[in-house]
Task: inverse folding
């Protein structure tokens, strides 16, 4: 996992201010991982398929989180909105609640073309994505360890 | 699409039209399809996956599904709304229930989805019990 990503609480976009509403929206934070979602899924899949699915999710989530950072840097709102939409579903499906919530906020910020909020939430997603991937890998990633 | 599936096998699985137990899932994200497959097959249905609207249109020329679970926002290619419109233009599929899958259930999505010929909306992320409640509802409906 990337060690260079900046934690959202220490990040402020240059030349802009973070509004109270942005800070408040992040205040009551969702848990990084609700592992009941994946545990439930494990009941329905053979072990090998489950392991493959976890690996697929880990890889695609890291890719999506990385693309959020790149698209935010480029100011590509349409691209960000598409990735945010994907993340809401995929992170939520695997119980990565905090990442899914941040992705939802990113989608909203893109919709209102609020670049300050977009950059702020994009930075949050970098941290939340790393945390979600680490939590899922630690809890369910037998295949990662193998 | 379930690659390698033979038309004969598909026809057998299709089981004479509206008695089929086939649920077609359409989503451009493989993880979402894998989850749908796990829950739908776990409930005793046959699941067939399509990774795009175009694949769904092709697959439904080979099988007669009992229900289609259709993601709205897919790329590249046609989105779920357009896929739904094209499915509804085919006489044999006019009465097959179509449930949209969406992470953003807005009033506009609902209006557009109903206008396109959809019957239902299922929210992402999937809640297993809610998802299967809707699947059972539509599958048990008489054609």
Result:
């Amino acid at each position: 996992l990337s060690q260079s990503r900046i934690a959202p609480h220490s990040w402020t976009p240059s030349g802009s201010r973070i509004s109270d509403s942005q800070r408040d929206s992040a205040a009551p934070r969702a848990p990084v991982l609700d592992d009941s979602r994946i545990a439930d899924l494990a009941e329905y899949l053979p072990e090998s398929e489950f392991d493959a699915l976890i690996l697929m999710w880990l890889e695609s989530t890291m890719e999506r989180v990385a693309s959020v950072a790149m698209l935010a840097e480029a100011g590509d709102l349409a691209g960000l909105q598409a990735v945010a939409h994907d993340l809401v579903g995929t992170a939520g499906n695997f119980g990565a609640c905090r990442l899914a919530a941040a992705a939802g906020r990113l989608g909203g910020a893109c919709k209102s073309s609020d670049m300050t909020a977009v950059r702020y939430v994009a930075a949050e997603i970098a941290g939340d994505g790393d945390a979600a991937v680490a939590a899922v890998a630690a809890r369910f990633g037998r295949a990662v360890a193998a | 699409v379930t690659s390698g599936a033979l038309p004969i096998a598909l026809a057998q699985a299709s089981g004479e039209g509206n008695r089929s137990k086939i649920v077609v899932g359409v989503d451009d994200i493989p993880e979402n399809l894998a989850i749908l497959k796990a829950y739908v097959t776990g409930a005793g249905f046959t699941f067939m996956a399509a990774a795009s609207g175009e694949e769904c249109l092709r697959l439904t020329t080979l099988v007669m599904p009992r229900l289609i679970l259709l993601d709205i926002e897919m790329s590249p290619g046609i989105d779920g709304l357009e896929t739904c419109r094209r499915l509804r233009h085919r006489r044999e599929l006019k009465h097959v229930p179509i449930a949209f899958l969406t992470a953003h259930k807005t009033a506009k999505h609902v209006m557009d989805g109903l206008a396109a010929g959809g019957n239902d909306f299922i929210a992402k992320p999937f809640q297993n019990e809610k998802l299967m409640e809707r699947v059972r509802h539509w599958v048990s409906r008489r054609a």
Q: What stands out?
A: The radius of gyration of chain A is 15 Å. DSSP finds seven helices and no strands in chain A. Residues 47-74 of chain A form the longest helix (28 residues).
